């Protein structure tokens, strides 16, 4: 019978498992004539040995064989080699035999004696079905990658987006190592955003200064220096892309497979190329957004410092309060948005003092009742100032309520307990501790132990009891890293490196 020529089967590997040499040789010769790469063996046990060395695409197996029959082989294939398709031979063409084979994952079965037409047709259908299944899988993965990359582009949550794309690439391509870096052109630096499979000493967030020219080569060399992978794999096992947005390099995506793993084939590289531009655009947007937030933070820090500088005794107070509050918020498990509010709220919690006259603000003695009323108005004045800035509205409760007390004796609204937002309760503790441990015109600074004792006296009365306990534990374990140097008078703003470190958001995956 003259059948149409087969599709090019050079890449399709077939293993024939048959103890009858006549049937085995017949299948091998016919399938090789049709362009398949064919190997053969005599029973299931020998077949498993060959599978350990090289995995075929399709197994043709008899059901009745010595040492290990076809049913036992099908069970092993289903458990350990689920991607291998199977066709079974049987001389006992009963419905039950066919059902059992199909239940174990066989694509189809052939009845002995096997005809040329039946063998060729069944194998052709199995190969075609395998191709269709793989194309569906690739399409599904392509859609998933595209959706992730779209989300990556649209989100400003860099940490979440990077984690998702790295985990998806790791699952899809099964590399031995994966890493992603971001270029900061304003600093001429490359930052390692995330990595998997690299040596434990590789540090996420590490940066390196790039050589000037040529830029693409400098980026690759800088990435290799960050990941300590100057030579990681032969070209066939390496997928390293310089990511570009608007024809500008913005970072590096680097994946490598071990020598004993399959190489990156054209389908792999096409799939990566589809998402590369989206990933590049999102990395560039992320960098610009982080840069803008850093600039905003620097501006606000300078504003806070200028307010503090009205009184030489309080210079640096807002920065120090911010450090205490942010760390306490992190330790008690607040979300990223709440911690961000503490960062800005800490810097601006006393902005309302801009409306307090110097005669009151700088008075070296106890304030009169009327002066105290004016001083306390700084909480509402500050909230009114910030209310007009849409981007800072999340910190309004912090500014307005950081002088409230748990027992309701605070100001301006006399809130009690949980009526006070948790961010304001945190700020109240941070503000009080820094005030107590700093020199003032009317008194010397308390020793930290005295301030801690005062916090304990006021827990559950003036301040949230649980938050006080956590804060004291922090001071006792992290005081040296939390406390700014005593020469704070000269520090009118946070230095850029500190701000950048505080604003770094991408963790190791």
Helix and strand layout, with pairings?
Elements lengths: L12 E5 L3 H13 L3 E5 L2 H10 L4 E5 L7 H11 L4 E6 L4 H9 L4 E4 L4 H39 L3 H16 L3 E8 L4 E8 L10 E3 L5 H13 L10 E8 L2 E9 L9 H43 L8 H15 L4 H13 L9 H4 L7 H8 L1 H10 L8 H6 L20 H15 L11 H11 L6 H18 L13 H8 L6
Parallel strand pairs: 1-2, 1-3, 3-4, 4-5
Antiparallel strand pairs: 6-7, 6-10, 7-8, 9-10
Helix pairs in contact: 2-3, 5-6, 5-8, 8-18, 9-10, 9-15, 9-17, 10-15, 15-16, 16-17
Brief digest:
By secondary structure, the protein is of the alpha/beta class. Helix content is about 50%, strand content about 10%.
List keywords for this structure.
Beta-Lactamase; elongated; disordered C terminus; 509 residues; alpha/beta; 51% helix; Hypothetical protein af1432; 10 strands; Rossmann fold; 5-stranded parallel sheet; 5-stranded antiparallel sheet; 3 domains
Outline the structure in words.
- α8 (266-308) packs across α18 (496-503), α9 packs across α15 and α15 runs antiparallel to α16.
- The chain has helices at residues 21-33, 44-53, 70-80, 95-103, 116-154, 158-173, 215-227, 266-308, 317-331, 336-348, 358-361, 369-376, 378-387, 396-401, 422-436, 448-458, 465-482, 496-503; strands at residues 13-17, 37-41, 58-62, 85-90, 108-111, 177-184, 189-196, 207-209, 238-245, 248-256.
- Mean pLDDT is 82; it is low at 1-7 and 486-509.
- The protein has 509 residues and is an alpha/beta fold.
- The chain has three domains: 13-135, Rossmann fold (3-Layer(aba) Sandwich); 155-284, 2-Layer Sandwich (Beta-Lactamase); 310-491, Hypothetical protein af1432, CATH 1.10.3210.
- The chain is 51% helix and 12% strand.
């Amino acid at each position: 019978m003259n059948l149409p020529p087969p599709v090019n089967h050079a890449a399709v590997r077939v293993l024939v498992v048959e103890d009858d040499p006549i049937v085995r040789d017949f299948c091998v010769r016919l399938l090789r004539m049709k362009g398949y790469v064919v190997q053969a063996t005599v029973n299931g046990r020998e077949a498993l040995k060959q599978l350990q060395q090289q995995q075929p695409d399709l197994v043709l197996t008899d059901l009745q064989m010595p040492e290990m029959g076809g049913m036992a082989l099908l069970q092993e294939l289903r458990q350990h080699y689920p991607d291998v398709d199977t066709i079974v031979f049987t001389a006992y063409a009963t419905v039950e035999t066919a059902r059992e084979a199909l239940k174990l994952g066989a694509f189809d079965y052939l009845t002995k004696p096997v005809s040329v037409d039946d063998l060729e047709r069944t194998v052709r259908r199995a190969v075609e079905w395998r191709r269709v299944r793989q194309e569906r899988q690739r399409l599904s993965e392509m859609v998933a990658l595209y959706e992730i990359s779209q989300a990556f582009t649209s989100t400003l949550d860099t940490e979440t987006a990077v984690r998702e794309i790295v985990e998806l690439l790791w699952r899809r391509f099964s590399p031995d190592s994966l890493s992603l870096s971001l270029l900061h052109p304003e600093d001429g630096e490359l930052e390692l955003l995330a990595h998997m499979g690299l040596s434990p000493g590789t540090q996420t967030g590490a940066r390196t200064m790039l050589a000037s020219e040529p830029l693409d080569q400098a980026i690759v060399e800088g990435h290799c220096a960050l990941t300590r992978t100057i030579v990681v794999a032969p070209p066939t096992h390496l997928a390293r892309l310089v990511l570009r947005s608007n024809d500008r390099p913005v970072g590096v995506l680097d994946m490598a497979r071990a020598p004993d793993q399959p190489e990156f084939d054209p389908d792999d590289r096409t799939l990566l190329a589809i998402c590369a531009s989206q990933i590049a655009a999102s990395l560039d947007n992320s960098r610009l957004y982080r840069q803008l937030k850093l600039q905003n933070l620097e501006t606000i820090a300078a504003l806070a410092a200028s307010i503090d500088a009205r009184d030489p005794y309080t210079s640096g107070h807002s920065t120090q309060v911010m450090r205490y509050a942010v760390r306490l918020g992190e330790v008690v498990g607040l979300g990223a948005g709440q911690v961000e509010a503490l960062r800005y709220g800490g810097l601006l919690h006393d902005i309302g003092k801009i409306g307090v006259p110097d005669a009151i603000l700088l008075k070296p003695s106890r304030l009169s009742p009327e002066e105290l009323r004016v001083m306390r108005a700084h909480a509402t004045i500050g909230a009114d100032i910030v209310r007009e800035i849409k981007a800072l509205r999340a910190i309004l409760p912090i500014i307005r309520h950081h002088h409230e007390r748990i027992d309701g004796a605070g100001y301006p609204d006399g809130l009690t307990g949980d009526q006070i937002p948790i961010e304001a309760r945190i700020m109240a503790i941070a503000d009080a501790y820094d005030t107590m441990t700093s020199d003032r015109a009317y008194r010397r600074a308390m020793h930290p132990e005295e301030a801690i004792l005062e916090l304990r006296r006021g827990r559950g009365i003036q301040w949230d009891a649980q938050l006080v306990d956590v804060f004291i534990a922090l001071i006792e374990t992290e005081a040296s890293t939390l406390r700014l140097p005593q020469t704070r008078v000269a520090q009118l703003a946070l230095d850029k490196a500190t701000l950048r470190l505080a604003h770094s958001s991408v963790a190791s995956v």
